[in-house]
Amino acid sequence: MKRRSVEAEARIENLKRFGACLAGGFVLALMVGTQEGTQQDFGYAFRQSVAMPRILIFLGIGVLLYLAITFGPRAKPYLTRPGLRPLGAGVLTVIISLTLLKWTDSPQINTGKFRPLADAAAPTQALDSLARLWFGSAFSQTAWLLLIIVTVLAAAGMIRRSAPLSYAAAILAGVLGIWAEYASAAVSKFLHYPSHATGGAVAMLGFFTIAVASLVSARSQAAEADTDGFIDRVLGWRPGLALVVLGFAVGLVGVFNAAWFSPGDRNATLSTTASMFGATNLNGFAQTYLDWLGFVLFFVTLVVAGVASYLRHRLLAYAAIVLGLVSTLLTLVVVHDFSALGGKQGFDGAQGAWDNLGTGAWMTCAALSLFAGAGYLVLKDLRIEAKGVRAGSDIVGSGTAGARGQVAAATMLVVIIAALFYPPTATEFWQTVLVSEIGIYVLLAIGLNVVVGWAGLLDLGFIAFYAIGSYTTAYFTGRLPVQPPDWLLLSPLACIPFAIAACLIAGVALGFPTLRLRGDYLAIVTLGFGEIIRVIANNANGFTNGPRGAFNIPAPQIHLGPIHLTWGDSALGFWYLLLVLIAIIVLLFNRLENSRLGRAWAAIREDEVAAQATGINTRNVKLLAFAIGASTSGVAGVFFASQVGSFTPENFVLNNSILVVAYVVFGGMGSLPGAMAGAAVLTWLPEFLKDQVPAEDRQMWIGALILVMMIFRPAGLIPARRRKAELSGLDRPSSAEATAVPAGEGM
Amino acid sequence: MTATAPEQQTAEVVYDVKDVTLRFGGVTSLNKVSLQMHRGEILAVIGPNGAGKTSLFNSLTGVYTPQEGSITLAARKGDTLTSVLGQKTHVINRMGVARTFQNIRLFPALTALENVKVGVETRQKSGPIASMLGMPWQRREERESTEKAYELLRFVGLTRRANDLAGSLAYGEQRRLEIARALGTEPGVILLDEPAAGTNPNEKQELAALIRKVNIEDNISVLLIEHDMKLVMSVAHRLVVLNFGEKIAEGTPEQIQKDPVVVAAYLGTSEDEAQAMTEGLEVQTIDVREGLLDEPGAAGTEGGQS
User: Fold this and answer.
1) Nearest-CA distance from A501 to chain B in Å?
2) Which of A221, A232, A256, B134 has a CA that sits 20 to 30 A from residue A340's CA?
3) Using the beta-carbon criterion (under 8 Å), do B127 and A597 form an inter-chain contact?
4) Does domain A82-225 have CATH number 1.20.140?
5) Which SS3 state, helix, strand or coil, does residue B43 take?
6) What is the ipTM of this complex?
7) How does residue A675 score in pLDDT terms, banded at 50, 70 and 90?
8) pLDDT of A5 above 90
9) Interface list for B 158-177 with A (CB within 8 A)
10) Tens digits of residue pLDDT in B275-289
11) Whole-number pLDDT of residue A139
């Protein structure tokens, strides 16, 4: 009797769940639907959303969800098999490339995504036949079909633990990856349209991920996956080697395939460029470089760096560094020389030095710098080893920590090199985004990280300091209704110290009366402060020019003896200026984090009462956090003002403050690289999605990403060392605990 | 068993507490408490739960400011007595008073070494700009603080755990780390708030040894709040007994053990009855001596940690 009622209850529960899942699918159909409605017909959007074939798909999603919830636990043991997680990531990447990303920028193809491209390409007889096959066949789009086949094959190999199946899947996935990129390139060639579209490359990446996952699964003996550990082991084995391989891949394309000059028109590779300038009076060295020296330098550096990384040889490592840096410089000199000449001769509409260049030279530079980076990693490795031997038993578990540090250093080098050599190859749109969105918010996130991440004080009015920095610049360059005395009119970069001072003062002024507040209360007060500054800026017409804001702020200039640098028309110049500012601030803050003050911040964040009892003047230490964070924001303000030239109080709304907090939390509170990465990713994403999804849906995708992130990685993109250690370190068994007896029982 | 007090002729006053009264609204937590602590001694404050021990501690370290009375301090040798009333906690710490907490308050996300360094560095000078630029004197201070922190970890026997997170240490280790952090601030007086709570008998013995070591080797005066009578009686030179916010007795461990008022306080009976009991029931006094006074509160904290 009782048993039956339990069963009945379970059945009802099941039905309820099924209903809820269907309802979820229905709601999703409404949410992802067209957002159009007219004054006359409010029901339009609704009818569109529930139109017949469409609603079935979404209800199907609901059914899938139900099945996943109901049978998920039973499948769980299979889901921890090695390779399944990377397989999932790979398949997802391919799906994204096939649905969201553009495969071509050519205006001939509507939206440029895979499906319209496939529709257009499949029947085109003149297109390369392999590419044609990729885009379509009797079974509509081949790519989708192949993706399903390879996924099933790989998953079967992993779940049944069959090595032959996994090998087959790996080979198939590898071939598909190359095929995808090949088809994408063929289309570009066919359309005569140089492409910045990422679809083909991302699909290749996804397929290669599937291939690697299958290979790992085929070779793995383990029953449970340890993906993170695996990645650490592979990258930590010879940290330099990863950079060498990357440099080799990038450099190969750069030297042989990519355009060095006149992209989009002639697409001249290195050797074509050489013959192009052969007839001109290009100086001897540059001509030699284009003719053969470029290739030789690349391969010599490659070999030296590779051998140095593999053997961990000190002298070779030094040689790799010197060779890499010198040949990077030589490449830049040559690029300057021939592009300047090309401009003089008016080749393909070149205007002057650094104009009308392709990606090739920059890729080569990146490759050569990567080789130098590999040499640096070898030296670092040797230094860590020597130190480990000297410090002896004092350092516990330094082996893995060392390896992890090396992986971090390698990643950092790649990011720096990308930051140096990617922007020149980007389109003007992305260069502008890099400067006015990504770069500036990275700077702001670094500043806020001091306050929120290190000192643990939630500041919701951070953008106010940015405003103060901007208005200070406007004042000292004489662009506000109130003018400074003539002798104090400054060029924008000279405003930096004044902006820092103004923000320091504002930071202290805000902090002094409010820092006795904690947590939520402090957040509310800072929020109010931010609004006060904005309202003042908006209303103090006589001082700030009110809602019209400040305009005509000059671009930065540097005149130092023989050096004359001016910024103005190109975003690229601003990017390098910003890079220098960020580099300086990161260097300084990195020292600060591991100093007396950094530890004091950590102490008050962890336990304010204990910090006080240990003799820390908590008020001063908090004030310093506010002031230092604020001054970073002041620097960002100066840069912003002189870059955009005009701004209004609308640039400093509350929303921006909240965004910066979100960036820091998303990236990893208290982690300098984390805050930077968080800001970079979350400012890049909306711009990226602009091309890929309908404008109304953009915020939804970003929200979804943040949501997923906070569920699966609550400590952020790159968790702080201290917090990360806290999360993973506490479950490490401590030797003494095993012998400890609770006091009561011991008596 | 019981240690003898240092010679009385050198009885220089470290803490002078006079008629201190502390009230929270209508509740009187300390009522005209007076006591003197002498340089180089280990003074224990005992009393049942709610007797006002921790209130006294918090008044001594500036967390609370008593409404009446005076508290003066001359923590280090050669200091003159200065009032601590109204001073901030960190200022009193800088005057030479370090403390530990009843419920351990380390910085769990920092390593053991970093915890001690935080203490050591509160005595250093270099500011943020020197740190950012890596000035030579800042580097020297950094090196000094690391060396001193290692030295202190060795002193409390935690060298091997230097690079482990404080939060991952065993309970007894955390207690010792807290003492190391307190010692890092170069105190003349150290206040230990129930250092033995939640530790096992082995750890208790180590702790007693450590307290004596701190007292003798570093010549630091120790003020101790403790429930564990065995520990108190073996370590303390002198005891002060509080009950309901009033000082009811003061003296050497031997004197206190025999004091009928103390016994009564611990047994929770009136003075007359206690008198009768100490005469009649010898067993009860032994109870006090043996430290079988596991109050619910203390047991609770222990339970939470095991």
Assistant:
1) 14
2) A256
3) yes
4) yes
5) strand
6) 0.83
7) very high
8) no
9) 159-165, 167-173
10) 544 444 333 333 443
11) 56
The residue type of B280 is G
Question: For residue B189, what is the DSSP state?
Answer: E
pLDDT exceeding 70 applies to what percent of chain B?
83
Residues A227, A212 contacting (CB under 8 angstroms) = no
pLDDT attached to residue B270: 53
Model confidence pLDDT, tens digit, residues A524-552: 999 999 999 999 999 988 888 888 888 88
- Residues of chain A contacting B106 with CB distance shorter than 8 Å: 606-607, 610
Picking from A570, A597, A59, the residue whose alpha carbon sits closest to that of residue A357 is A570
Quote the tokens at residue A647: 């701004």
Amino acid of residue B104: I
Interface test with A, best of B129, B131, B141, B154 (most A CBs within 10 A): B131
Q: Does residue A701 have a pLDDT over 60? A: yes
Sheet holding B13-24, edge to edge: B27-38, B13-24, B68-73, B82-83
Helix (H, G, I), strand (E, B) or coil at B33: strand
- Partner-chain contact B165 A725, CB within 8 Å: yes
- Per-residue pLDDT at A372 exceeds 90: yes
Give A439's Cβ-side CA count (13 Å radius): 29
How many residues are present in chain B? 306
Q: What is the dihedral sign for C-alpha A33, A39, A42, A47?
A: negative
Please tell me the distance from the alpha carbon of residue A629 to that of residue A625, in angstroms, as a whole number. Answer: 6
Task: State pTM to two decimals.
Answer: 0.80
Please name the member of A395, A614, A722 whose beta carbon is closest to the beta carbon of B93. Answer: A614
In the predicted structure, residue A628 carries a pLDDT above the cut 90 = yes
The percent of chain B in helix, strand and coil, each rounded to the nearest 5, is 45, 20, 35
Q: Which of B107, B170, B203 has the CB atom closest to A606's CB atom? A: B107
Other CB atoms within a 10 A radius of the CB of residue B13 amount to 13
**Quick count: other Cβ atoms within 10 Å of Cβ A215?**
18
In this structure, of A105-109, A364-368, A525-529, the range with the lowest mean pLDDT score is: A105-109
Give one DSSP letter per residue of B54-102, joined into a string.
HHHHHHHTTSS--SEEEEEE--STTPPPEE-TT--HHHHHHTTEEE--S
pLDDT of residue A732: 38
Q: Is B180 on the interface with A (CB under 8 A)?
A: no
Residues of A in contact with B184 (CB under 8 A): 614
Instruction: Identify the structural domains of chain B with CATH numbers, from first to last.
Output: 10-96+187-257+297-306 (3.40.50.300), 109-185 (no CATH)
**Band of residue A321 on the pLDDT scale cut at 50, 70, 90:** very high
C-alpha distance from B265 to closest chain A C-alpha (Å): 23
Q: Do A609 and B105 touch (CB under 8 A)?
A: yes
Helix axes A52-79, A2-31, angle to 10 degrees: 120
- Tell me how far apart the alpha carbons of residues A499 and A634 are, in angstroms, rounded to a whole number: 5
Give, in order, the Cα–Cα distances in Å from A13 to each of A8, A69, A500, A651: 8, 12, 62, 52
Distance of CA A693 to the CA centre of its chain: 19
- Per the CB < 8 A criterion, the answer to whether B38 and B11 are in contact is yes
Alpha helices in A136-223 (DSSP H): 142-159, 163-191, 199-219
Residue type, A318: Y
